Amino acid sequence: MMTTLRPFTCDDMYRFNNVNLDPLTETYGLPFYMQYLAHWPEYFQIAESASGEIMGYIMGKAEGIGENWHGHVTALTVSPDFRRLGLAATLMNFLEEVSEKKRAYFVDLFVRVSNQVAIKMYTNLGYIVYRTVLEYYSGDPDEDAYDMRKALSRDVNQKSVIPLAHPVRPEEVD
Amino acid sequence: MSRHVQNPDSSIIERRLRPIYDWLDSGNNKKALQECEKVLKKNLNLQCGKALKALTLLRMGRDQECITILDNLTSEKPTDDATLQVISLCYREMEQNKICKLYETAVKLDPTNEELHTHLFMSYVKIGDFKLQQQSAMALYKQKPKNPYYCWIVMSIILQATRGEGETDESKRKVLLSLAERMMTKLVDDNKMDAEQEVQLYILVLKLLEKYEEVLHLLDGPLGEKLQSANIIHLKLDYYLKLENWGKVNETCKFILNESFDRWAVWKHYIKSVFKLYTSNSNADTANSNLKSLDGLDNTPEKCHEFICGIIESGSDNAFLLRGPYLARFELCFKLQEHRFKCDDLLGDVLQLFVEYFRLFGHKPCCVLDLKIYLNLLSADQKSELGIRLMKEVGIGPTSVPQTADQMQLHIGALQLSRLCGAHRNLSKDHLQAMMTALVLHYQHGYQTYGKELPSTDIGPADNYALMAVHVMYDLSKTENGIQYLVAAIALLSNLIRNSPSNFHAKLLVVKIYHMLGDVIGANNIFYSLDIKHIQLDSLGYIHCGQLATTGMFSICSVHYDTTIKFFSSNYKDSTEHLTFCYKFGSFFKLDEFMDFRERMNNSLHYATVLVDRVMLNLMDCSSVTGLNNLYISISELRINWTKLRDNKDLGIYVTWDPEFAERPVDQTEEIQRLFEQDMKFLKLRVYVLYCIKGTIEVSKSLDGLKTASLEALKRTLKDWKELEEDARNSDLEPIPDHLIAYPPPSRLHGFLTVPYVSCITSFVEFFLALCKQNVEEIETFFEQAHREIKALNEKLDVKSGSSDFREKRKGNEFFVNNLEVICTVCVICLVCLESVKPPSTRKSKKKHQVTESKVQSLVIQLAHEVLSEINKFSEVLFSWTNTITEKELITILDSLNLSVNNDNLHRGFMDSYAVSYKEIQEVLKSKLKMLSSIVE
């Protein structure tokens, strides 16, 4: 994937429209981005093309206590012009590497159960459906989410990726 | 849990409090206060009621009373959510200085309280007082000697060096930075440096001192190991680059590229280093010692080429074919040309490089983006040959269609590249028309064959045919009778959006074209489907919001202005909060960026323009003396930092394959720079309309003692305004070219200067000034002048009657609305004049005095009558325009085109939109008529 991966900066918010106008990418209020930039700057990376366009970006964080210490993918998005080039995998690898360095046990993410393209991609990257979160996405109607996970090297026995038998409610997710 | 359930009374209370919230939201603080008193009378101890009262008082500027209530309230320790929310709103809205004072007192009373110290520190962060930050962080560290607090001290010192007094004073900067450095080395020496953030701060100091060698040393040592989230090798590369240690750069880049072939920035650094080494090598006398050991370095173009080829070979069995090394050959070629070496010997025929790259990656949409930046490696002849060669590669002739989706993408790519090479320039109209038709047919075929089964969130694979067709239609619209091509473009794009509802490129284009033709309602509907919000209101504000002011569609203006202003004003407050995050989480290296960003957003040219437009709307709405006072307040609240205004448009969002933008994006052209200067001039000129009103009101309100000063100020305003206009007329008034679709619309400055804003309004203000001086002769002179000016308005209006070309009609609207602004301003000044000659009922004056007064008064009234009759004429002109929109014109235009669209809908849309504009303008005229005549008659 030919790209320049670099930390996301505030000014990128003035140029990320070619990615964010895509209906699957949400544009959040500023405090949301600023919080991530200030708290987990290393987890917020952007990919730029040779001609300077923004190709996509990933936003994430590290959280949890004890064996629940893990990396989390908050947002992953790739511009329509740069799809099917393996960019999502590059960005995910980056986040996993950072999480490895932070000695996290696993990486997780939420995805709409209807988003087959994304689920397939994450599965190809080694993620499994750990559990279903009922009505996680509000809308009309509400939609369930899959909580998908991939164990990192610190979780030697792969304890974090034993799927739960029953779905959970959003309140039960920490 | 909702509050409703917790307390059975809460729904009643909520119902009582609702009106207060509503009054506050609509900005009517007086009513809000009355409502608060009413509620508190019934419910003496209602905490939320008290909090709301405090907020209301604060917004009325009665800070002291607000603070008293807040103090009492906080001592009651309220816990319910609503109350706490209102209290925190108070604190947020309160001037930050006051919050500092609050915590200063609190810390004095409770000097060991760590939390209060922290709050005090953060309150200084919010006002950006780095010295006070440093002091309070020191006090805090003394209380609790924790590393983060120590870092707060250091960071506060750094900011003094970079953004405080050190910014302009180099020696101060040095002193402060070395102090920061010493503090950090002490932390290291005491073996106390532990967290990653502390190491980052240390590096930040060293970097500011340009001690790059030391940073590299640190990265290799034990402190480097603490940087767990950094990629050390990439960090080191940055510092080798700063040190211009090309040998190390070369070595490091090769190391990285051997691991990951596709890091584009690293490729560029690598090739740069090759040429740096090569040129310093051949200049033996300037070669320095560290270049002696060149073994293993790539210091010639040949070695560089060898390296690239090696990577290509080793990557050939990769799952994704990697573009990096292939594109690196273009970069190498570029550098060779830059150094005036021949490329052919090493890389063969350059044209062939393009063809090969296209063969390998042409089925990916990004191929065009990759190649476009290198098209200038080709001569003009080679460019036109490339277009032909690529078309041959694709194998689609004038009568065939793509057989696979991949072949279709190849075809689209070839078309885009040949347009980028200039293939669409200098074509005959017939030729362009044929191309347009072919593209539309290709789109329809591609959509039917490859686009139907896709999810609605995907952009259709054939969509780019249609977008290219629209670009060709746009070219055609510049030919004779070109309007029909724009209508066709709207029809085609509407079709495309139906098939591919997530194609935002199509939506952006159609919004643009709707605006060109003046269909504001059409533009507005599509704009909403783009779901533009938050920061996009700034970066993309120009596509819709920025075009509304001259449409006459005031209700739509109002909605978009309010949304925009709300975004900016709430973030103005929030953004200081964001700075505190950096201290809280120790991401010190982000602070500079956060502060720049805050400044960039707060000084957005779009924001300032919308603020002024909003007040102008208030001016149009103003229909009474009370309205006048509100207008005065909103003008007084305008704060524009002229020297810091910035253009934050995201112009790159419009795709373009015009050769002009192959190498440099739209926003880097001189035209955009000129547009910015014109927009700045426009905004300044426009804001003076408001300054004139403000000055006039100030004079009328000022007491005798201050009268002279305010009179002088108003005179100065007039003089400055005239000078500004003079200056603007003598500046570069060339509008931004409109033949390229990627350029934003021209500045409103041009429209402004065609209307006698300055001469007409100043003549009325001068009439008012004469009134104040009670000089009858002068009053008569300026009466004549004002009279002439206002008559001239209408004469010009008559000429610009409605045209059948909607582009002209749109310009007609702009002209009309600008004239309307002049009329409204003049009305407001007349209102002030009338107020000032109103005979005070209590005072009895001498007889002689009365005679002059009545004469003066009759002149004022006469002038008002003149204005009234002009308003009537405006209304008549507009009425005649309304009748020029006929259904016939549009239908014949659409019938001549071969697109299956619903003619009726399209044309009804245009008609409706203009009808609404005209109706809203008529409303404004009517209200002004009513206002003036109620006083005069």
Unreliable runs of chain A: none
Radius of gyration of chain B: 34 Å
Q: What sort of overall outline of chain B do the alpha carbons produce when their principal axes are compared?
A: globular
Oligomerization category of the chains in this entry: heterodimer
Q: What is the radius of gyration of chain A?
A: 16 Å
Helix-strand category of chain B: mainly alpha
Provide a count of the helices of chain B: 44
Number of strands of chain B: 0
CATH architecture of the largest domain in chain A: 3-Layer(aba) Sandwich
The secondary-structure class of chain A comes to alpha+beta
Shape summary of chain A: globular
SSE order and pairing:
The complex is a heterodimer of chains A (174) and B (937).
Chain A: E1 4-7, H1 17-20, H2 30-39, E2 45-48, E3 54-63, E4 70-78, H3 87-101, E5 106-112, H4 116-124, E6 128-137, E7 143-151
Parallel strand pairs in A: 4-5
Antiparallel strand pairs in A: 1-2, 2-3, 3-4, 5-7, 6-7
Chain B: H1 3-6, H2 10-25, H3 29-42, H4 47-59, H5 63-75, H6 81-93, H7 96-109, H8 114-127, H9 130-143, H10 147-162, H11 170-189, H12 196-208, H13 212-220, H14 222-225, H15 232-242, H16 246-259, H17 264-282, H18 301-314, H19 324-338, H20 344-347, H21 350-361, H22 366-372, H23 380-394, H24 405-420, H25 429-450, H26 463-477, H27 483-499, H28 504-517, H29 520-529, H30 536-539, H31 545-548, H32 554-585, H33 591-602, H34 605-621, H35 625-636, H36 670-701, H37 704-729, H38 749-753, H39 757-773, H40 776-799, H41 806-837, H42 847-882, H43 887-895, H44 903-936
Family (chain B): Belongs to the MDM20/NAA25 family.
Protein name (chain B): N-terminal acetyltransferase B complex subunit MDM20 homolog
Organism (chain B): Hypothenemus hampei (Coffee berry borer)
Describe this structure in words.
The complex is a heterodimer of chains A (174) and B (937). With 174 residues, chain A is α+β, with helices and mostly antiparallel strands. Chain A has 2 domains: 1-104, Gcn5-related N-acetyltransferase (GNAT) (Aminopeptidase, 3-Layer(aba) Sandwich); 108-174. Chain A is built from 4 helices and 7 strands. Chain A has helices spanning 17-20, 30-39, 87-101, 116-124; strands at 4-7, 45-48, 54-63, 70-78, 106-112, 128-137, 143-151. Chain A has a 7-stranded mixed sheet with strand order 1-2-3-4-5-7-6. In chain A, strand 3 (54-63) and strand 4 (70-78) form a beta hairpin. Chain A is globular and about 45 Å long. Chain B is mostly helical and 937 residues long. Chain B has a domain at 1-94: Serine Threonine Protein Phosphatase 5, Tetratricopeptide repeat. In chain B, 72% of the residues lie in helices and 0% in strands. The longest helix of chain B is centred in the C-terminal third of the chain and has 36 residues, at 847-882. Chain B starts with a helix and ends with a helix. The model of chain B is unreliable at 1-8 (pLDDT under 50). Chains A and B meet through strand 1, helix 1 and helix 2 of A and helix 22, helix 30, helix 32 and helix 33 of B.
